[in-house]
Amino acid sequence: MDEQKLNYILSALKGIDYGSVVITIHNGHITQVDTTKKTRFPAHQENLRVQQGKRSHYR
Predict the structure, then answer these.
(1) Three-state SS at 1
(2) In whole angstroms, what is the distance from residue 13 CA to residue 8 CA?
(3) Which pTM was predicted?
(4) N-term to C-term CA, the chain
(5) 30 Cβ partners below 8 Å, 6+ apart?
């Protein structure tokens, strides 16, 4: 495997907390690397109560 491609893939993996790295291979050679980064936001406090079965009386 080409060291430059390997370094690129490792860098992509280190650069994301949530998401995916898709490696496209044609005829046994890496031709493309797609990186999708996702951002996770903390749940709203009301959503946490509902998930825990502690639904509040006001909305």
Answers:
(1) coil
(2) 9
(3) 0.62
(4) 57
(5) 1, 2, 5, 9, 23, 24
The residue behind tokens 């493309």 is 32
The residues spanned by each domain of the chain are 3-51
SS (H, E, C) 3-59: HHHHHHHHHHHHCCCCEEEEEEEECCEEEEEEEEECCCCCCCHHHHHHHCCCCCCCC
Q: What is the pLDDT along the chain (59 residues), one digit of tens a residue?
A: 799 999 999 999 999 999 999 999 999 999 999 999 998 888 776 666 666 665 555 54
Q: Say how many C-beta atoms besides its own lie within 10 A of residue 52's C-beta.
A: 8
